[in-house]
Amino acid sequence: MELLIPGVLDSVMKLVIVQNDEILIIWKNLVFPPKQIRKSAIDLTIKSIDSFYSQGHLDFGGSEFKSAILEKVTPIIEDDPKYAWWSLPPGQYLLTYNEILNNVNYFTLIFPHTRLFQTGSTHPAFYWTPSAGGQKITTILQVGEKGLRLKENSRISTAITYKSP
Q1: Closest Cα to residue 25, out of 112, 96, 131, 106?
Q2: Number of domains, the chain
């Protein structure tokens, strides 16, 4: 599948969407490929969740930049000892995915899985391209006012991956 985007000086940039078997070649650490891979997309799963323990600092020049301190949120094992659950109160969290886009010649658009909206929670849609192989992917998870329960390895996002032109 191709996506044509008008470029500068009437040129056209052709983006090719990665499909099926090629997804398995460029994506690593899939939890269960038969459930995660669609024809032209992949569902991403939760590896870990951190809460923001302290505020960060951001200035114009970067000399006073300071990352927020993170605190790991530990999932709780309930009835099924194979998987645990995170029970999150309302707020923002740093979510890390299991899957890794392991090739710098590709980029991907990541957006919330439809079911995440139905829980009253979301995360931003964003563009991702690795600067090096094996680089983890993270996003900010916004948990709605009623809170959210998430099972380990749950599918939370969808990614459409493109070959770089």
Answers
A1: 106
A2: 1
Contacts of 122 (CB under 8 A, 6+ apart): 112, 116, 141, 142, 144
Q: What is the pLDDT of residues 65-113, one digit of tens each?
A: 999 999 999 999 887 778 899 999 999 999 999 999 988 889 999 999 9
| CATH of residue 6 | 2.70.40.10
> Nearest 5°: phi and psi at 8?
-75, 145
E strand residue ranges, the chain: 2-6, 12-17, 27-28, 42-52, 70-72, 76-77, 84-88, 91-97, 100-101, 106-112, 126-128, 138-143, 148-151, 155-163
Whole-model pTM?
0.87
Provide the β-strand partners of residue 124.
none
Q: How far apart are CA 3 and CA 102, in angstroms?
A: 22
**Strand partners for 32:** none
Structure tokens at 110: 């990541």
* Structural contact between residues 133 and 101, judged by C-beta atoms closer than 8 angstroms: no
61 Cβ neighbours under 8 A, 6+ residues apart: none
